[in-house]
Amino acid sequence: MIRLGLRLAVTGGREALTRLAAIAVAVALGVGLLLTTLAGMNAVDAQLHRYTWLSTGQSATAASSADAVWWSTRWDRVDGNMINRIDVAAAGPHAPVPPGLPRLPGPGEWYASPQLRTLIATMPAGQLGDRFPGEPAGTIGPGALASPRSLTIVVGRTAEEMSRIEGARRVDHIATTPPDRIAQALTLVLAVVAAGLLFPLIIFVSTATRLSAARREQRYAAMRLVGSTPGQIAVFSAVESTIGAGAGTLAGFAVYLALRGPVLAIPFTGETFFPADLTLTLPDMLLVLLGVPAGAALAGWVALRRVRISPLGVSRRVTPRPPRAYRLILLAAGLAELGWFVGRRPHTTDGQAAAYLSGILLVMVGLVVAGPWLTMTGARLVSARSGRPGVLLAARRLADNPHAGFRAVSGLVLALFVTSVAVGVITTIVANRGPHRTGAGANHLVSMSMGSHPDGAPGATSVPAPVLADLTAVAGVSDVVVLRRNPADEDPASLPVLVSCADLARLPQYGRCPAGATVVQTWSGFTGPDDAGGADRVWPVSPLTVDDLRRQPIASIEVRTDGSTAVVERARTALEAAYPQRRFLPDTEADNAADFTRTLVGWQRLADVVIVASLAVAGCSLAVSVAGGLSERRRPFSLLRLTGVPLRVLRQVVALESVVALLLAAVVAIGAGLLAAQLFLRSQMDYTLRPPHAGYYLVVAAGLAVSLGIVASTLPLLARITGPENARND
User: Fold this and answer.
1) Which of 171, 401, 448, 691 could hold 575 in an S-S bridge, CB 3.0 to 4.6 Å?
2) In terms of DSSP bridges, do strands 109-112 and 135-139 run parallel, antiparallel, or are they unpaired?
3) 581 and 451, same structural domain?
4) Cα–Cα distance, 651 to 648 (Å, whole number)
5) Are strands 81-90 and 445-449 parallel, antiparallel or unpaired?
6) pLDDT means per 10 residues in the chain (730 residues)?
7) How far lies 218's CA from each of 207, 239, 251, 301, in Å?
8) Which three-class secondary structure state does DSSP give residue 221?
């Protein structure tokens, strides 16, 4: 039976071969994107695990073993880029060694990543190299780097020096498991990305394998009438579907290899991948190699349900049962689940993943399930309000078989839903926390937090004169201001630090004192947690006098620069050299904004990939559906032409069938997407959805325009496939 099925699949003339080729091409594109998605998830996971060693000592208890290592992880910056700085000192002869190093660096030695070594060699020592005492001992290997562009350095110290660094501790092992919060957040993000890509891909592959389903139903019905059993028909269908899908699956690996190079150059997580990261595991390949052809065979088997019931049912073309309104239940349930968690946000990342991901997936499934009912309802409304022949024919055909009409645009529905959710969430986050909230001089003030014990002596109240001299000697540094701790900081109404009005008067761009005040309360860096301050900000008065202020411990040192990279980095280096034991290294307001911007850029890149890939897959799915629909309706359209229906009316029918379903689906998908984004934002961040930017509307308009162009490109085929010769009985 399998051999006969192969002969039937490939000896059906040009139409059969064209159908198989179309299925193979469609499945190849879908499989290529699917494999790229799986490889990308593997790459992000590999990147996370190589980065894990930097979290050593963050959660473990201090080690008392003699074979331990003093460890301190800090984050430095240079020209807006973050440096992972690890200071170490061996506490015994068998101290653990970080990955990528042949040994621990001794005092006066350091190992650096290739990218950081290049920067140290090319930048003036006063801007970067002087922060790391000693000489290079070697280069950190790729096994310890998140990406080829990572800036990482391991600095050797003495045990005595390490004991004075804030937060340094003795540990007896190097971390090998990612912190739970990072792993859980990554799982949530990757799950959303995978769902956003896999749903359109599944629909695309399913659509491709159903090409010319009606023609095959008629042929199989004829075979049933001459004595074939349902089991034999199922074998023929499975073989025919599996041939095209199998060839397409193998070709999909070639598509994946072609996409691999461009994907390596995109820093999805803020850092690019190593080539070895973007790989497929054996389970991934087996899942695709076996799953896609099996899914194609299943789709072909499901498509024959009417043949299995009765071959006469196909020959009579009985109108399918119309969909019912209960199809809206899943869509409503998904939105209701997201709405339920507004004000009830789960406290754990696992709980949030279960709540939000399940709700979004339920909405996506609900859109697919409710689509035929919405299409039928829209077609009936159009039919009731129009008397033109083309409109009536299109509307009645959609109303009679809304499943087929919606199937053509179902991929686009999910693509627009994913687009709306992604753009709505990111636009709102940018509006509330984006880099534009920083001031114009965000890079002018270098701030050094002195922690709880400046210089290792609680209550230090002055900056040594040599340190002030070194800072003011940097060309481009115009002032150095000291902020002091507020003794009333425990009062919720007070601000954490104090500054004299005489010092603040030298920095007018950061606010002013009320009339008659001598000391005011402020924030480190002169910015609050939710705003950027500014020249018009009036800071609240402190009851302390200037003499009282001078007795308060130093909270931070603020160095005013001209904002140029060279001056900022020289000031940063001078502060680090003066206070090498500080846990929090000097930064600027722009540095703090850059941390969020880097994360945001990663989200935007992931969203862009999902949006572009989803729209591309949806466009391909629409093209396959429309072309397959024309092929299946060749005979009915030919008969209509023989009865005198003009060709332009048939073109109107084809166009309107797609346009009505397309526009209706777009409105529902966009509305559901923005509503889901609003519910997520209110629950997770207590934000209100901001209107998407102009780029969103351009993407939607472009997606719809391309879809309509695909439909229009098939219209010339009507003249070729609706000739009198196609009106014959098969």
Assistant:
1) 448
2) parallel
3) yes
4) 5
5) unpaired
6) 60 66 78 83 81 75 68 90 92 86 93 95 93 92 89 93 88 75 54 63 65 60 70 69 81 90 76 86 89 74 57 54 87 91 76 77 88 85 74 75 76 79 80 58 81 51 86 91 85 84 90 92 77 75 92 90 92 91 85 68 65 68 69 72 77 76 83 91 86 81 79 74 61
7) 19, 17, 30, 14
8) helix
Same domain, 460 and 576: yes
499 token code pair: 């500054």
How many whole angstroms separate alpha carbon 130 and alpha carbon 74? 17
* Residue at token pair 């196609």: 726
Q: Count H helices and E strands in the chain, helices first.
A: 24, 11
Domain assignment present for 529: yes
Asked whether residue 639 is domain-assigned, the answer is yes
Residues 299 and 327 in one domain: no
Q: Which of residues 112, 144, 174 is at a domain's end?
A: 174
Note whether residue 525 is domain-resident.
yes
The domain tally of the chain equals 4
For residues 581 and 450, membership in a common domain is answered with: yes
169 and 116 belong to one structural domain:
yes
Residue 647: phi and psi, rounded to 5, are -60, -35
Sequence length of the chain is: 730
As given in the structure block, the two tokens for residue 424 are 């709505």
Measured CA to CA, the distance from residue 599 to residue 592 in angstroms comes to 12
Phi first, then psi, for residue 137 (nearest 5°) are -100, -15
Helices of type H across 477-561:
501-505, 546-550
| Residue of 120, 118, 138 whose CA lies nearest to 130 | 120
Residue 584: both structure tokens together: 């929090």
> How far is residue 395's CA from residue 391's CA, in Å, rounded to a whole number?
6
Give the SS3 label for residue 510. helix
DSSP state of 639: H
Instruction: Measure the CA–CA gap between 609 and 618, rounded to whole angstroms.
Output: 14
Residue 435 belongs to some domain of the structure:
no
DSSP 8-class letter at 554: E
Residues 234 and 361 in one domain: no
Does residue 19 sit in the same domain as residue 82?
no
Domain span at 526: 445-587
Report the half-sphere exposure of 492 (CA within 13 A, side-chain side): 0
CB atoms within 10 A of CB 309: 12
Closest alpha carbon to 98 in 147, 138, 129, 64: 138
Q: Within this chain, do residues 314 and 326 fall inside the same structural domain, yes or no?
A: no
CB 272 within 8 A of CB 264: yes
